[in-house]
Amino acid sequence: METDTRTRILDSAESLFVRHGLDATTLRMITAEAQANLAAVNYHFGSKEALIEAVFRRRLTWLNEQRIGALNAFEAEAKGQPLKPRQIVEAFFGVAIRMAADKNGGQTFMRLLGRTYTEPTDFIRTFLADEYAEVIARFKAAFFKALPDVPQEEFLWRFHFMMGALSYAISGADALRLLGPIDDSDPEALYARLMSFLIGGLRAPLPEVIAKPARKPRAKRAA
Amino acid sequence: METDTRTRILDSAESLFVRHGLDATTLRMITAEAQANLAAVNYHFGSKEALIEAVFRRRLTWLNEQRIGALNAFEAEAKGQPLKPRQIVEAFFGVAIRMAADKNGGQTFMRLLGRTYTEPTDFIRTFLADEYAEVIARFKAAFFKALPDVPQEEFLWRFHFMMGALSYAISGADALRLLGPIDDSDPEALYARLMSFLIGGLRAPLPEVIAKPARKPRAKRAA
DNA sequence: TCATCATTTAAACGTTTGTTTGAAACCAAC
DNA sequence: GTTGGTTTCAAACAAACGTTTAAATGATGA
Hints:
The structure is a homodimer.
Chain A: H1 5-20, H2 27-33, H3 40-44, H4 48-78, H5 85-101, H6 106-114, H7 122-146, H8 152-171, H9 173-176, H10 187-202
Helix pairs in contact in A: 1-2, 1-4, 1-6, 4-5, 4-7, 5-6, 5-8, 5-10, 6-8, 8-10
Chain A binds a DNA duplex through helix 3.
């Protein structure tokens, strides 16, 4: 338990952010739980904003490297042939689910990340966009190659839906309590469940209505 | 534009909440945009917490009544027979997507709602659980009846995933910017896209690994 | 016209926020 | 043992927060 102040602060911040949200977590809560002085955050990180970025960067960089690594492995194996969609899904979402199952750090962070995609704060949006730029580009290319019959815009939406399902899968029991008691203790089962759901959605028949000249009836109810 | 102070505050709060989040939105921002006095919030609602609840209740009650209404209509038509899964999905998620397409109020709110499911704040969780209790019970029952071959726990997860996809579908362009430029101006197309994705995921083949006696290999990488 | 109620207003309240300060404590190198 | 650089510490800072107050204003019915 002899970790240095910097990491103790990162750990406490991560854990408190996921419990109370970014805004509602104060520096005093963080430093108290980390058994550090209040000024330590500004000394080690500069500001609360910089601390938030550090909390995310610490694990997000590694996560996306893993994703690209998994994709590289599949592509090397395929020797120029398009990958199977299942492989690409596995590389992107599977890696995330497995990280979320890792009690030594990943679990807490992934819950935080899941609910941060929809975070409206500006500096977080731009920060995430930067961190994701490379991995998104790689996976878009792989998907387009693997599914040449699916219109690109259509696929982007499905990718987006899949991110939503992933986010909720990871947030897990918190939001699930809305649906009733449920067991989210088995990460392998969760992995299998999410994968089959995602593949099912990804490979669903294309909707017919797409690209219809959306003529909206102007008629309003008489008032 | 002669609306009363109370509704002007509700409208401004709704719009600001979705832009900056609940915590980061201050009463001074709200009253400034609503052209009301700072004290007006506490006068009309009692507290900021009560205002938040009012913002949600105003549209959420109606939304869930619509959902139950749609389900009732389908069930009356089916005369005791189980519904088709597509109908239940339509009643729950279709109603939400259509509300999200309504520029006169619904759109802003649904974006707010989508990112609030994962909100960690306690009083919001309990509030949402209350508001959703009835509609969740009705739809769970309908789904269980329509899909007797799907284990209930399995289905609850899929329902959960579907909520995630819906949430992201509604948050729309905000988070989608991560994936690149995309057009979310056509609600009918979005509706069709989400529905086919959801049905695809819901009806995907069951994963085999479920309920395996999760024996986790203790072996760690040599270090 | 007056009295009564509801609403709006400006000002102030006590807290809490993130941040800064300057001195104390620590620790290795010489 | 003294120096020099890093880290910790208690205390204070101004700013912003949600909330409260008491007076001013508006509208309604007698």
